[in-house]
Amino acid sequence: MKRPIGLALIFLCLWLFHGPMPDSYAGGKPQYLIKFATLAPDGSTWVKQMRKLDREIREKSGDRLGFRIYAGGIAGDELDVLKKIRIGQIHAAAFSGVGFGKILPMVRILDLPFLFRTYREVDLVHRNLNPFFTEQFRKKGFELLAWAEVGNVHLISKKPIRTVHDLSGLKVWTWSGDPIAKETFVAMGINPIPLAVTNVTTALNTGMIDTVYAPPLGALALQWQNYLNYMMALPLVHSTGAILISSRQYKKLPEDLASLLKKTVEKGMAELTTRLRDQSEEAVEILRKSGLTIIPVPEGEALREFHAVGVKVTRRLTGRIFSAELLDRVYALLKQD
């Protein structure tokens, strides 16, 4: 069985790609070269932004610092890349929740279903917990350079889903090896069908599954709307990713270059987040025009039932993946908004 590729990074790959290119990078070899891996292919919005950051860092550092970008998954999936970072073959990478959850499971708290209601809440929690998670990643041998957002994930199905009970009888796909997704669907009273993303289109075509979850941009790029009829406007989850570099490599950088790297990547990912949020709204309209019916956000008791699923999943995972103390911190922040 193939190992799962993380949800977040699969969809980071999907914007207007032209296929992977081997080990390419701009300019000559700088004094400090960071080998960076991503599943996103060359030509994607995501890799274009990374190449822009590479040019900026080279210019500001006097060509002392730069990236060598291994795009399109040529360095392997997230688990492959993680192994290569630990033996020094790769220095940094973009990880999804599934990937960085292998390093620091507690971070998966950010992927709880129905946790966030607005982008404002997402930004508030990320901003305030960034120092804490930075320190926790550091203890595991990694430096958190920046969050890398994928965005809101929606249920897309053959039949309309307006209530939790509407999921009964549906054949719902879930990403193999993702405990958050599995717990979410079990809490909805269904037994999901675990598959690798590479098998989803075939499964839709044969009728093995009739319901998926994806960001609008990802669904559009994979053309899953050709097999499905409805999308819930209510996000199932807000998917988070991160750019990490090994602490061993980060400590090799002179102080000025380490500071330049972190500030530039943080700024670049913030710009990318804004761009992708705008593109996500455009993708919903394209899906609608392609024939997909967008089911409005439920109200009243129907909405409370979905939120109750989030509460149930959170209760089941508290103490297993993240602590009650961390959960309290997240809830306290959300109350501030």
In short:
The protein has helices at 7-12, 45-60, 78-86, 97-103, 119-139, 179-187, 200-206, 216-222, 247-250, 255-289, 300-317, 324-336, and strands spanning 32-37, 65-70, 92-96, 142-157, 173-175, 193-195, 211-214, 230-232, 237-246, 293-295.
Task: Report on this structure.
The chain is an alpha/beta fold. The chain has a single domain, classed as Bacterial extracellular solute-binding protein, family 7 (D-Maltodextrin-Binding Protein, domain 2, 3-Layer(aba) Sandwich), CATH 3.40.190. The protein has twelve helices and ten strands. Strands 1, 2, 3, 4, 7, 8, 9 and 10 form an eight-stranded mixed sheet that branches. The chain has a two-stranded parallel ribbon with strand order 5-6. Helix 6 (179-187) crosses helix 11 (300-317). The longest helix has 35 residues, at 255-289. It is globular and about 60 Å long. It starts with 6 loop residues before the first helix and ends with a helix.
